[in-house]
Amino acid sequence: MAKCEICQKSVNHGNKLSITRSHISKRSPRTWKPNLRSVKANIDGEIKRIYVCAKCLKNGKVKRA
């Protein structure tokens, strides 16, 4: 499974809730996937291609090559 190599964020599982007439009537399974980007990053002086989530990119946790 795809995973962010900085923060280890991966797929989450849960239920999709169908709401009708102000109460929950049906539940069906669904997944939430992380927003991953393939990035060339400078890691220990080497340039590598890694998968990083958009939140880590935005916060500057990755040094781009």
For the largest beta sheet, what order do the strands appear in spatially? Answer: 1-2
- How much of the sequence lies in strands comes to over 45%
List the total number of helices.
1
Q: Runs with pLDDT <50, length 5+?
A: none
How much helical structure, as a percent, in the residues?
under 10%
Rg (C-alpha, Å): 17 Å
Question: Sheet bearing the most strands, described?
Answer: 2 strands, antiparallel
**Mean residue pLDDT:** 90
Beginning-to-end CA distance, first to last residue: 25 Å
Gross geometry: elongated
Q: Given the helix and strand composition, which structural class is it?
A: mainly beta
What are the secondary-structure elements, in order, as H or E?
EEEEH
Q: How many structural domains in the coordinates?
A: 1
Number of strands: 4
Overview of this protein structure:
The chain is mainly beta and 65 residues long. It has one domain (12-59). The protein has 1 helix and 4 strands; from the N terminus they run ββββα. The strands form 2 sheets. The chain has a two-stranded antiparallel ribbon with strand order 1-2. It has a two-stranded antiparallel ribbon with strand order 3-4. β3 (36-43) and β4 form a beta hairpin. The longest helix has 6 residues, at 54-59. The chain is elongated, with a radius of gyration of 17 Å. The two termini are 25 Å apart. The model has no long low-confidence stretch (mean pLDDT 90).
Short description:
With 65 residues, the chain is mostly beta strands.
Which features does this protein show?
65 residues, mainly beta, two-stranded antiparallel ribbon, two-stranded antiparallel sheet, 9% helix
